[in-house]
Amino acid sequence: MTYQFHSYRSLFPILSDYVYLANCSQGALALPVSKAIEEYNRQLLFSGRNWKQSIAKMEETREKFAKLIGAETDEIAILTSVSDAISAIASCLPFRNKKKKIILTDIDFPTVAHIWLAQEQFKNNVTFIHSTNGMIHLTQYEKEVTNETLLTCIPHVSFYNGYKQNIKEIADIVHRKGSLLFVDAYQSAGHIPINVKEMDIDILTTGTRKYMLGIPGVAFLYIKKELAQQLKPKLTGWFGQESTAVFNMSNPVFATGARRFETGTPSFISIYAACEAINLLLQIGVHNIQLYLQQLADYTRNFGAEKGLQIIGPFSAESSSSMTAFYAKNALKVEQLLKEKKVIVAARNDVIRIAPHFYNNKDELTYAITELARLMMEK
User: Fold this and answer.
1) What is the pLDDT of residues 69-100, one digit of tens each?
2) Is residue 26's pLDDT more than 80?
3) CATH homologous superfamily of 6-29+286-378
4) pTM score, two decimals?
5) CA separation for the pair 215, 269 (Å, rounded)
6) Which CATH number fits domain 34-282: 3.60.15.10, 3.40.50.1220, 3.40.640.10, 3.30.200.20?
7) For 2-104, where are the alpha helices, taking DSSP H only?
8) What is the spatial distance between Cα 232 and Cα 235, in angstroms, rounded to a whole number?
């Protein structure tokens, strides 16, 4: 296995002391990202006010994220969390008697269900598609999505076991039934290529703190241009107004496109970090990252199986992401014991999630899996 990203390892100081495999929870901090955070801090320390620079950085970040997912800049809103992005859509989606059903899945991150079930008008019209062994067959979308479905909300990649869905095929099904498609890309953006136009996605959200290598405080909301113009946000603020209406208290005018979903002053320090993180991803190329991580994922599954570890979720490359979940009864305890061995992974419920990025290599995975197998034998 050729390792083509060795020169980038020096950008991640944590790799000097740890095998870092927890990108499904928090990406490792790169030096350029850290320097961007320091630059924001330096501007405040020595200038006292950096509003113009921060607004410029926000627009630069918007443009870079739009490029990352094949969107137009006016189709991107910058918010503070994926929960905020989902809430913004859930609270403004028009309820119609003949079009009122919301389809979720049991592999969504729990906050998705929390938000939709909190909506008075939709809470009794939410249907869950149930997975089998953590996976969902396309026939289930054919069956569950009907002409009464207003919106189908799905994860691109499961947070629990790394199962990857075919977004384009699902889009074809739900659009044929007249449903909108809302994709949660928090576990895919940054290591799996996304093109919202080719995939025919209506709405997409993701944050920067996982595979996108940023820090908490920034999320992106993509809304197809023609759809955004039809929606009237109920969660809004001065950033969501046309510039001429910002200081007009009695006559608000929504901004054009997805920007109307922005609210108040964002976390600029997180935007500075996001800008450099996305720049790094664009420089390397997400397609190149995916090709490399497919090799690491294949090795992880195969070597893990050789060591007697039980894989939870998909085994085939077609339906797998770069994350592999291994069963561990006391996952949180195992996570802590692995950290004592200088291996950082992310436990979730009854699994240990091994989630490498482009800066990881085969030797690190060999060590991490060997240590995990040893701990499992001791249990």
Assistant:
1) 999 999 999 999 999 999 999 999 987 778 89
2) yes
3) Aspartate Aminotransferase, domain 1 (3.90.1150.10)
4) 0.95
5) 9
6) 3.40.640.10
7) 31-47, 51-69, 82-90
8) 9
